[in-house]
Amino acid sequence: MDVPLFDTETPLRPLKATILARVAEVIERGVFILGPEVEAFERELADYLGVRHVVGVANGTDAITIALRALDVRRGDEVVVPSFTFYASVEAIVTAGARPIFCDVDPATRNVSCETVKAALTRRTRAIVAVDLFGSPAPVPELRRFGVPILEDAAQAAGASLDSRRAGALGDAATFSFYPSKNLGCFGDGGAIATDDDHVADLARTLRFHGSRDKQTFEYVGYNSRLDELQAAILRVVLPELDGFAAGRRAGTRAYEAAGLGAHVGLPAVLEGAEPAWHLYVVTHPRPEVVAACARERGVQTRRYYQLPVHRQPAMRRFAIDTPPLPGTDELAATNLALPISAVLDDSQARAVVAAVAAAQ
Ligand SMILES: *Cc1c(COP(=O)(O)O)cnc(C)c1O
Questions:
Q1: Domain that holds residue 155
Q2: Ligand 1 atom at minimum distance from 190 CA
Q3: Which of 171, 258, 312, 351 has the fewest CB atoms within 10 Å, measured from its CB?
Q4: Is the pLDDT of residue 92 over 90?
């Protein structure tokens, strides 16, 4: 049985007619940048998350850069970030003018922990970027004890929650990506910043439009980084389905467990009180490439992620000189394997994946 790594198409199929109608309305209206669709989507996503403000921007990477500046991170400030994440989580810190300080992750949760973050804190730490990696919430409430502003990178975690609070509502600010393969995807690039803080929201809103409030006076050197009306209109159709999609993803992982996946590979540990959104379902195995090859022969797509952790990337050399050993990061880089997951992964697909994984033993 062929099982793809992602299936974003099937869940969106029943929405396509509505999406096309909304896109046609936007084209009729003729307003394409910062109009009523963006404004309505920002309100709807804020209500969904249970936060006061959402600011739409051009992508999830810009969202991090703009959010850090809105949190008053300045040139030369240190920002703690896990090395085991998508490169953009760190790149955006450098773009904001700050210095990334790499921390480790707990190989069980794949996320930062209080211990790994603490080891990276200094007097110069101005913010922590806590990534909800693979859609599983980071321990943001516990990280608050350090008294440092927390930016939650929730790009992979739309639809997740921790103690009944939504991922994206856990930190001082949070960022989302609406890249098509993300859990809340649009049909192009898009991103957003969520926050309860009026000042952070106001500054982010100003920075996304060249640092200007009125298009006449320019207070900051900012960005041209806006979510556009077409993408916002599409996202307004998809957002009401997000919880259903996340439930489907969780059902997929339960089907894996029921089919005995845990006997063959290491399953991700989840924080108590967390409902992950499983953007990716990443297991561990001492020889992941052997499992991947065996799965491929049986039509099951898998993928290895972040095999070269960010602190070892060529562009990050100057920021990684003082990075201590990150054993959790190295372990995950060497052992991780993402298995197929989607909102519509069914029991028979889950059994086929487990059989393919089991055949590699
Ligand atoms: C996708 C992603 C980003 C960047 O989002 P883009 O919209 O592609 O710029 C940032 N952080 C994480 C963890 C991501 O997965």
A1: 9-240
A2: 7
A3: 258
A4: yes
